[in-house]
Amino acid sequence: MILAAALAPAVILLYYIYRKDKFQQEPVKELLKAFGYGVLSVFVSLAISLPLGALGFYVDDPLTFGGAVADSFFGAAIPEEIAKFLMFWLLIRKSRYFDEHMDGIVYASCVALGFAGLENILYLFSSEDWVSTGIMRAIFAVPGHFFNGILMGYYYSLVRFDPLSPRRNRYLILIAPIMAHGIYNSILSVIDLAPSISVLLMIAFVVMCNELRKYCSKRIQDHLRRDGVI
Asked: Could you tell me which of 113, 105, 87, 80 has the C-alpha nearest to residue 12?
C-alpha cells in the first residue's frame, strides 16, 4: 500500500502528460525509459549535493533564514535539477523520437517524475504517518517536480527547434526549474523557523504553487500550438 501510494501521483501525472501529446505520442517504452533515467538522477543528485555539503555550502537542519535558503538551493534545488537535466540530455541527445516542441516537455517531465517517484518512496517508508505524508506530497511535492520538468523541457525545446530563440532561453533551461524549486523549498523551510508568520507563508506557498501550475499549463499550450496541434 505504501509503495502504491508513493508511486500513484507520479503515474497519474505521467499519464496526463502522455495524453497531452496528442499529435505524435511518444512510445510508451521511451517514456518508461525516461522515468527510469529520473530514478537514476536521484543518485546523481546525491553525488553533487554531498560534496557541496562537505564544502560548507549548506547545513542540514539550518537554524537561520539564510541557512534555510542555502539548504534549499545547494542541498536540493541546484543538485537535483542539474542531475535531472543531465539524465534528460543523455536520454534525448541522439533520440530519433525527439522531433517536436512538445517532446521536450514530455521527456523532461517524465525524468522529473522518475525522480519524484523514488523520492516519494523514500519519504513515505521513513514516515511515522505515511498517509498524511503521502497526501501532502501528492498535492505539492510530486506536482512540484513535474512543473520543474515542464519548465526545463519547455526552454530546451525552444533552443533546440528555434534557431532565433533569445540567448537567455539557454540559461533558463536550468535557471527556471532551479529558481522554482529553490523558492518552493525555501518557503517551506522558513515556515519551520518562523511559526509566528507561518499562516502568511503558507498562503504565499499555495499561491506560488497555483501560479506555477497555471504558468506550466500555458507553456504546454504554447508548444502544442507550435507543433500545430491546436
From this structure: 113
